[in-house]
Amino acid sequence: MSPHHAVQILQHELLNMKSSASTFASALADIAEIKKMLAPPGGLADSSLPPEVRLNQIEIRFTDVVEQLNSLDNVYNRQVTTLQDRIGDLENEFNHMVQKVKLGLPAGDASSMEGQGMSEMHSKLMELQEAMTNMTGTAQKLMDERDERQHALDVMLEQVELLKTVKADREDLEDALADKADACQINKKVSLEQFDAACGDMSKAIEEALTKLTQQENLWSQALDDIQKDVGNKLDRMELTPLRDFINKKLKNLQEKFKALSALKKDAEAAGTRSRFLKNVNCISCDKEVIMRKEVDSSLYPKPYALPPTRSMGPYLAYELDQLRKQQKCVPASKNLNAFENAMQSARSAKSPDHICNRYCGGSHTVTTPQQRVTRIGHFLEQWGPEIGPANDMNIRGTDGQV
Hints:
Residues 125-183, 244-271 form a coiled coil. By secondary structure, this protein is mainly alpha-helical. It has helices at residues 3-38, 51-104, 112-166, 170-179, 183-188, 192-233, 237-264, 314-330, 337-351, 380-384; strands spanning 277-282, 289-293.
C-alpha cells in the first residue's frame, strides 16, 4: 500500500467520524427537545385542573418520553458501537501501516519527496489522534449524560409507580364521588352545635317576650283600673244636663247685669280733645273757678339738684340721735321733765271744754311740701275712675275633655 492511498483512507475515516459527531449533535438536540417536552407548559403546572386530569396528562407525557428515550438510546448505542468498531479498525490499520513503513523503508534510503510525504502523513496522523482523543472525550460526556438521563428516568418511574399506588384511579374516584353528597346539599344541612345554639337563642327570645308580655299586661290592668276610677268620678249624662242649665242661667244673669251697667254709660264720651285744660272747675280748698291741666308738663317744674357727696358720718349720727330723743320722749316711765309737763297738759286739756275757732282758707294747713306733693299724670278719671272691662262669653274645656 502506497502512502498516498493510506492518506486517502485516513481522510475517508475522518469524514466518517465527522458524520458520527453530527449524529451525536442531533442526539443532543433530541435530548434537549425531550427536556422541553418533560417541562410543564408555562413553566408551572396548571393547578386549576383537577388532580385526576393532571395525573392522566403526566402519564401520557411520560409514556411518550419513555418511547422517545428508548428509541434514542437504541440509536445512540448503535452509533457508539459502530464508532468504537471504526476506531478499532482505524487503529489496527494505522499500526499495520506504521509497521509496513518501518519494514519497507530502511533508515537513510528514503528520498526527499517520500520523507516530506511521511512528515505530512505524521502530522495528519497526529491531528487524527487529537481528533480521536476529542471524540473519545465527547463520547464519554455523552455516556455520562446518558447515565444521568437514565437515572432521571428511573426516578420518574419510581415516582409514577408511587403515584399509581398512592393516587386513586379515575373509576374508583368516580365511584367514591358518586356515593358522596353534593356541597350544596351539605351546605343546606345544619350541624348539631348550630341547631343547639339556635334553639337556645329561640328559647331566650321566647322567655324575654313572655316577660315583656306579662309586664305589658300588668301595665294594661293598672291603666284599666285608673280609667275605671276616673270614669267612676265623672258625671253621668243625666246629671250633666241640669248642671248645664244651671250654668247657662248664671251666665244669662251676668249678661243682663252687664247690659244694665252698659246702659248706665250710654252718655257720649269724646275720644279726645284738643284743649289741654279743664275749664269750669272749682277748687276743693277755696271753691273758686279755676283751670286744671289735663297733662302734666314736666318742663314747668325745676329739676332737682343732687346733694353734694360727703364721706363723714355726721348726718347718720344726727339722724340716729334724733331718733333716740324721740324714743325717750315717747317712753312714759322715763324721768324726763318734758314728758311730765306734756302729761300734765294733756290731763288739763281733757278737763277743759272743746275749743271752737274759725278755719281760714290760707295757712300752714293748706301748704304742701315737695315731699307731700303728688304729681298727676293724665286725667284723674283715668287714675281713680271706675273701669269696667267688657265681658266675653266663651266655652271652656275641662280636664275630662268635656266643654
